[in-house]
Amino acid sequence: MPATACEVKVLAHEALAEHIRLMTTSWPRRDKAPRAGQFFMLRCWPIDAAPLLSRPISLHSYDPLTGTVQFLYEIKGPGTRMLAALRPGDSLSLTGPSGNGFPVEHIRGRVALVGGGIGTAPLYELAKALAARGVKADLYCGFRDEPYGMERFLPLCGRVFVATDSGRAGFHGLVTELLRPEEYDMALCCGPEPMMRATAALCREKGTACLVSLEKKMACGVGACLGCTCHTTGGGRSVCKDGPVFNAEEVFCE
Q: What is the pTM of this model?
């Protein structure tokens, strides 16, 4: 499905933590419903103005009844600072939905969702989609200090485990220390690359299937510029077009 550029309105924008924002926008293209694991290119500044590139932000939630999408993102640089300045009623451009999401229709059995920091963002729509198919996954989330957004997962997931580097909440340590892959048929993972590599290694050791959602800097978001190419067992592939969801064995093959 080709990505579509669309001007939309900001409907709500709230702070969940110091540098974490949850933005709700309209999405009038009911014929292009986004799926868990896909992303949009967001832009609220002129095409000929800095920063040059739009910002790829993963889908956090989609509501087909209200025609709205949500983005949970972290303020990191000039682009996301401009996004964070948007208020209800302001306009922005969304290009998408892009990429291949999680194959929800083929996921069954015992499932673990593993997220780290802002990598938990796409897991909410994933948890919703799985729950709608009768799969109540367990959730494992790791944060540096303060957890955010966890309450929304509670009705969708079986068990919820939280780990923090600081020990402020939940388990004091790495979220991968809590995961027991042998208890699951599949792990679905998104977050910092070291965490995903560790999760993939644990799953490989126990024979548990593992899918990971990669994050790369993107220019076009449609696979034309090859700026987000990653190495896989099958050669170079574009994260934006061929991913961002890959089998862990394809991309963490060292």
A: 0.94
Which alpha helices (H) appear in 88-192, and where do they start and end? 121-132
What is residue 90's predicted lDDT score, i.e. its pLDDT? 98
Which among 228, 215, 235 has a CA at the least distance from the CA of 37? 215
Pair 98, 54: CB distance under 8 Å: no
Residue 234's pLDDT band (boundaries 50, 70, 90)?
confident
150 φ/ψ angles, rounded to the nearest 5 degrees: -75, -30
Question: Cα–Cα distance between 209 and 249 in angstroms, integer?
Answer: 9
Q: What is the DSSP letter of 36?
A: T
E strands present in 27-158:
39-43, 55-58, 61-63, 68-74, 91-98, 111-116, 138-143
Q: What angle do CA 104, 20, 6 make, to 5 degrees?
A: 60
Confidence band, pLDDT 50/70/90 cuts, at residue 84: very high
- Give 46's DSSP letter: -
What's the confidence (pLDDT) of residue 3? 67
Overall size of the chain counted in residues: 254
**Where are any strands of DSSP class E within the chain?**
4-17, 20-26, 39-43, 55-58, 61-63, 68-74, 91-98, 111-116, 138-143, 160-164, 171-172, 186-190, 209-213, 229-232, 235-238, 245-247
∠ CA(131), CA(154), CA(163), 5° rounding? 115
DSSP class of residue 68?
A: E
